[in-house]
């Protein structure tokens, strides 16, 4: 297995914050006079959700789904597994699914199906990052922070083998081949 090296910054904390303000404003406009139930897809969306939530001016509630598709690698090892479920009654709710990144689209497709089966009023999706080149199912999010090329990224909640989530910026990892 190759070992990751130094993270190289792709998006600064300032750029992320500026973009989130614009995104939140659009979401505030869209949900005027409605209460929103944010459903955060753990673990990756935790930082994005926390920042977005604090910029929303509409009334909100928060719930979490835990879905995992990556083990210790940079490519999906299996179909996404749902390992934690919602505590809320979704009947009559306006659900906003929040994830860190839309890659193949499998996670969001599965999460959307899961949530829709619980009969909310509406379901919308918001992702911090979109890697459109890697999509296998045509899934499109309603709100996207940044579109990025098809390379593995870490930081701002995203991990490699459980690490680097704490970086306040988005980075790519330079991977060195063993000698
Ligand atoms: P998808 O199911 O292929 O769309 O992948 C979505 C999930 O894979 C995200 O929620 C992330 O947890 C993870 N993922 C996809 N690409 C990356 C990446 O570049 N870095 C870290 N995690 C990623
Ligand atoms: Mg994830």
Short overview:
This protein has 179 residues and is α/β, with parallel strands linked by helices.
Fold and architecture overview:
This protein has one domain (13-149): Rossmann fold (3-Layer(aba) Sandwich), CATH 3.40.50. A 6-stranded mixed β-sheet has the order 4-3-2-5-6-7, with helices on both faces. It has a 3-stranded antiparallel β-sheet with strand order 1-9-8. The longest helix is centred in the N-terminal third of the chain and has 18 residues, at 13-30. It contains 3 helices and 9 strands; from the N terminus they run E-H-E-H-E-E-E-H-E-E-E-E. Helix content is 21%, strand content 34%. Strand 5, helix 3 (106-116) and strand 6 form a beta-alpha-beta unit. It is globular. By secondary structure, the chain is of the alpha/beta class. The N and C termini lie close together (12 Å). The site of inosinic acid has 20 residues, from strand 5, helix 3 and strand 8.
Please give a handful of descriptors for the protein shown.
about 180 residues; alpha/beta; Rossmann fold; six-stranded mixed β-sheet; three-stranded antiparallel β-sheet; 3 helices; globular; binds inosinic acid; binds magnesium ion
Q: What order do the helices and strands come in, and which of them pair?
A:
Elements (H helix, E strand, L loop, with lengths): L2 E9 L1 H18 L5 E7 L3 H8 L6 E9 L12 E4 L9 E9 L3 H11 L5 E9 L12 E5 L5 E2 L15 E7 L3
Parallel strand pairs: 2-3, 2-5, 5-6, 6-7
Antiparallel strand pairs: 1-9, 3-4, 8-9
């Amino acid at each position: 297995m190759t070992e990751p090296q130094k993270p190289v910054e792709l998006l600064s904390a300032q750029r992320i914050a500026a973009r989130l303000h614009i995104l939140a404003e659009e979401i505030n406009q869209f949900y005027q006079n409605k209460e929103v139930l944010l459903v955060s897809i753990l673990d990756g969306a935790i930082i994005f959700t926390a920042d977005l939530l604090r910029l929303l001016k509409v009334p909100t509630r928060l719930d979490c789904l835990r879905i995992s598709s990556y083990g210790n690698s940079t490519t999906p090892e299996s179909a996404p597994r749902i390992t934690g479920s919602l505590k809320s009654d979704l009947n009559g709710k306006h659900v906003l699914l929040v994830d860190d990144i839309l890659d193949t689209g499998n996670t969001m497709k599965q999460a959307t199906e899961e949530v829709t089966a619980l009969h909310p009023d509406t379901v919308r999706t918001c992702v911090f990052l979109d890697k459109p080149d890697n999509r296998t199912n045509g899934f499109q999010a309603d709100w996207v922070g940044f579109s990025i090329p098809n390379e593995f990224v870490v930081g701002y909640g995203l991990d490699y083998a459980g690490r680097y989530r704490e970086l306040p910026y988005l980075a790519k990892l330079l991977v060195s081949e063993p000698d």
